[in-house]
Write a structure and sequence with these properties.
Layout (H helix, E strand, L loop, with lengths): L1 E2 L7 E2 L13 E3 L2 E3 L1 E2 L2 E2 L5 H9 L5 H21 L9 H9 L8 H4 L7 H13 L10 H8 L26
Helix pairs in contact: 2-5
Length: 174
C-alpha cells in the first residue's frame, strides 16, 4: 500500500499479498480483474500457476517467494502506471508467465541522464530479481527493504503524479 497524502512523506507498507486469494471479481479502471482457484492472475508467480495445475497447497517459503513476485508486479504497476498484462485473459497471462515472459519496462526508465536516475536503475534491477522464474533466485523481503532504504528520501508525492493515461485499460501490457 502507498500513502500519497500531499505534504507528507510517502509511506509504503508491505502487506501479505496472500490476501488476494479471498478476492472475487473486482473492477479496476473499468476493467474486470478476476481470480480463479484462489489466485489473482495479474500478480501470480510461476509456482502459483503450477500449484493451480496440480491443485497443491504452497509451502511457507513458496508463499513468501510468490509474495516477492507479486511485489515486483506491483512495483512495475506503480512505475509504469499501467494495469499489469493489460487486456490479456487469464490463460494468456498464465502461458506468458510460465514461459518466463515478463512485463516490459519502458526504455526511458533505463536511461540515466542525471544522478537521480540511479534510483530507477536500482528499482529495475530489483523488479527483475523479484520476478525471477525460479523462486529460490528471488530476494527475500528484507533484502528488498535494504536495497530501497537508501532511496527513501527520493519518494516524494510530487514525483509520483499520474501520467495522463494512468491505468488506461485500453493499453496492452508493457
Amino acid at each position: 500500500m502507498v500513502d500519497l497524502d500531499p505534504g507528507k512523506p510517502i509511506r509504503v507498507v508491505l502487506s501479505d499479498f496472500g490476501l488476494v486469494r479471498v478476492a472475487k471479481t473486482s473492477e479496476v479502471s473499468g476493467q474486470k480483474l478476476t481470480t480463479a482457484m484462489g489466485i489473482s492472475y495479474r500478480y501470480a508467480s510461476p509456482e502459483a500457476f503450477e500449484r493451480l495445475k496440480s491443485r497443491t497447497v504452497p509451502e511457507a517459503d513458496e508463499d513468501k517467494a510468490s509474495d516477492v513476485y507479486a511485489f515486483a508486479i506491483i512495483a512495475w504497476e506503480l512505475m509504469e502506471r499501467k494495469v499489469p498484462w493489460g487486456r490479456l485473459k487469464n490463460d494468456e497471462i498464465q502461458n506468458l508467465v510460465c514461459s518466463n515472459v515478463r512485463l516490459e519496462i519502458s526504455a526511458h526508465f533505463r536511461q540515466e541522464r542525471n544522478p537521480e536516475d540511479k534510483l530507477w536503475s536500482v528499482i529495475i534491477k530489483l523488479i527483475e530479481a523479484c520476478w525471477a522464474q525460479k523462486r529460490h533466485a528471488r530476494p527475500k523481503f528484507r533484502d528488498v527493504h535494504d536495497k530501497l532504504k537508501p532511496f527513501k528520501d527520493h519518494f516524494r508525492p510530487e514525483q509520483l503524479r499520474p501520467h495522463h493515461d494512468t491505468m488506461n485499460p485500453r493499453r496492452l501490457h508493457g
